[in-house]
């Protein structure tokens, strides 16, 4: 089995970070380095999938569960509109290879991805 990822260690309480919400198979935290007024991470409790491509192929229901949790949190924290980002691969900026969705919201209406 691979080493626990930073997100597994957060979920297990080994690294401090508030779990702001959870469903049966996923949980959410605030990103430690926010890139938007609201910047959350929605993460499967399993680290079996390294990126969204593997997740979509292996457990599409879990991907749908993550999208649902992102939507719920966006309605609570940003009024409902949000950007969902899955960095996929190191050259795209992925640094943690335990799939996670960035949920970005609040004042993004100019539409820049920068
Ligand atoms: P990636 O670059 O893999 O798409 O996203 C990883 C994200 O995890 C980054 O935005 C980074 O700021 C966040 N992150 C890394 N370590 C921690 C941590 O210990 N706590 C929290 N809350 N976020 C983290």
Automatic annotation (TrEMBL):
Q: Catalytic positions?
A: 100
Kindly list the GO molecular function terms attached to this UniProt entry. Answer: catalytic activity
Q: Which InterPro entries does the entry mention?
A: Histidine_triad_HIT, HIT-like, HIT-like_sf
Question: So which residues are the signal peptide here?
Answer: none
SUPFAM superfamilies attached here? Answer: HIT-like
Location of the motif Histidine triad motif:
98-102
Which top-rank group of organisms is this from?
Bacteria
Q: Which residues form the HIT domain?
A: 6-113
User: Which PROSITE patterns has this protein been placed in?
Assistant: HIT_2
Question: What protein am I looking at?
Answer: Histidine triad (HIT) family protein
Organism of this sequence: Microbacterium telephonicum
């Amino acid at each position: 089995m691979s080493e626990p990822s930073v997100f597994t260690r957060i979920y297990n309480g080994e690294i401090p970070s508030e779990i702001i919400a959870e469903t049966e198979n996923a949980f959410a935290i605030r990103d430690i380095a926010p890139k938007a007024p609201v910047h959350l991470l929605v993460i499967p409790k399993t680290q079996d999938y390294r990126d969204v491509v593997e997740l979509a192929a292996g457990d599409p229901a879990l991907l749908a569960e993550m999208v649902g949790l992102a939507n719920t949190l966006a309605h609570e924290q940003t009024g409902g509109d949000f950007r969902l980002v899955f960095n996929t691969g190191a050259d795209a900026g992925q640094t943690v290879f335990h799939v996670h969705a960035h949920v970005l919201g609040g004042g993004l209406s100019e539409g820049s991805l920068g």
